[in-house]
Amino acid sequence: MINEDQVEQIAIEWFKELEYEYLLGYDIAPDSENPLRQKFQEVILTSRLQTALQKLNPTLPDSAIDEAIHILKKPQNATLIQNNRSFHQMLLQGITVEITVGEDKKGEVVKLIDFEDVSENDFLVVNQYTIKGTKGNRRPDLVVFINGLPVSVIELKNPADENADIFKAYNQLQTYKDEIEDLFVYNEALVISDGIHARVGSLTATDERFMYWRTIKNENDKPILEYELDTLIKGFFNKEFFLDYIQNFILFEDDGKKIIKKIAGYHQFHAVRNAVEKVIEASTSGSKKGGVVWHTQGSGKSISMACFAGKLVKQPQMKNPTLVIVTDRNDLDGQLYATFSTAKMLLGQDPVQMDDVTQLRETLSNKPSGGIIFTTIQKFGLQKEEVKFPTLSDRTNIVVIADEAHRSQYGFDAMLDKDGKFKYGYAQHLRDALPNATFIGFTGTPIESEDKDTRAVFGDYISIYDIEDAVRDGATVPIYYESRLAKLDLNADVLKEI
User: What is the CA radius of gyration of the chain?
Assistant: First the structure.
């Protein structure tokens, strides 16, 4: 059985395989011959950050870079999670600084990460990174840096120690959050492992919310390796995947009282990546069938839909698309809208909820591009004297995202009414309203084999995450059925009277 130090060294080798640079914490400490920071209280590798920002922002003066670094080092909020959310926003959108041009001053944006070109960024893993905290020095096992910023912490425990399981690593991270809080201002993901087992979670996640990461290259690449940490590092920290994850798979839910940071699971990550690819293909090829994502109830469908929307609107091939999100009930419309409303940072815009049929028709008719529109399918009903639903927009960069896309809810069949005329279901009206739109469905239940209409509208499955997957990952609990005979007591007097 390997010990904790060996796990640490093996993990470093896995990072090296991903072409991360590696440095030992002691070799770059403030009191070393090659210090990368001035004080043990500092958590950012300032020299690497400065070099990276100069490379990413070649047209900006050094004063702009220095100001951005100053802003990064001085969190302005009262709580850790508020500062973490502010940092995440800077990571996605850059930092606005003021520079002097001649006698004038103007605002410029300092980019922190190049999300388009992975090779433009500086990826580094450091072990035994000493940080002076409120109760002395602390040394997280592994810290992952992008452009000098500590975006992930990996805490390991000895797999040979029966008393040091994976959740001891979780508890250790909670202690670190209290004692070296500055390190976690810049955190995008936490990893806990005992060498054998491994989980990934967000800054606010409880131990139950730390998740498996079972894939490496894609949804079907689920190798059965000796160490779960091997799969997690190679699948989660793959440079391209990690940047995509940071940009498109992290949300902050704020109800006014509490902020919860939510991050996607492996099934959501790969499903969304596949769905975006399929929708782009369907939109440009003319098939208009983006497919169906079937992820069982309780596996985070709403978050998957928000991440899909956030990633899709960034794709240049879609030319600033309009997303129309369709549900079949007002309560579902409200719930999904609430999820999207808290994901403004991810989406880059505010979603709009349609109050009535008139607003829906006017919005879709007059919108030249862009926008995320929520509506119920019933708003695509015919008005008086209408035989066919009018065309609202014939643009090709409209994507209809249907929640629970099934024939029973999105009726596509024609029926005879009392006057002997054919009437079509809402699905046909929706198609008539947006004839060149691309359709994609998200559902928590499987499509029935005889349901040809759903496939006719949406196409085949893009991703499947069924109840067995969810139970194995702990996303839901198994359901057991117990067969038993019901005990009946019959009144003999009443039976005689029957």
Answer: 27
Q: Give bridge partners of residue 281 from the DSSP assignment.
A: none
* φ/ψ of residue 231, rounded to 5: -65, -45
Rounded to whole angstroms, the Cα distance separating 69 from 90 reads 11
Q: Judge contact between 110 and 53, C-beta under 8 A.
A: yes
CA 302 to chain centre: 10
Task: Report the alpha-carbon distance of residue 310 to residue 213 in Å, rounded.
Answer: 22
Percent of the chain, pLDDT > 90?
73
- In contact, 279 and 287? CB cutoff 8 Å: no
Helical (H) or strand (E) element with 463 = strand 461-465
Please name the helix (run of DSSP H) or strand (run of DSSP E) that holds residue 105, with its range, or none. Answer: strand 104-110
CA–CA dist 153, 266 (Å, integer): 18
Is 395 in a helix, a strand, or coil? coil
Contact between 48 and 145 (Cβ < 8 Å): yes
**Positive or negative CA dihedral for 242, 245, 248, 250?**
negative
pLDDT at 419 over 60: no
Report the Cα 474 to chain-centroid distance in Å.
Answer: 19
Tokens of 44: 């950012």
* Apex 250 CA angle, 249 and 253, nearest 5: 135
Q: Are 399 and 324 in contact (CB under 8 A)?
A: yes
pLDDT of residue 480: 56
Helix axes 266-285, 239-248, angle to 10 degrees: 90
Residue with tokens 């549900």, as numbered in its chain: 327
Number of alpha carbons in the 13 Å side-chain half-sphere of residue 76: 7
CB atoms near residue 76 (< 10 Å)? 8
Binned at pLDDT 50, 70 and 90, residue 416 comes out as very low
pLDDT of residue 422: 42
Q: Which two tokens stand for residue 240?
A: 């391209």
Nearest to 152 by CA among 211, 236, 227: 236
Name the phi and psi angles at 322, rounded to 5.
Answer: -100, 125
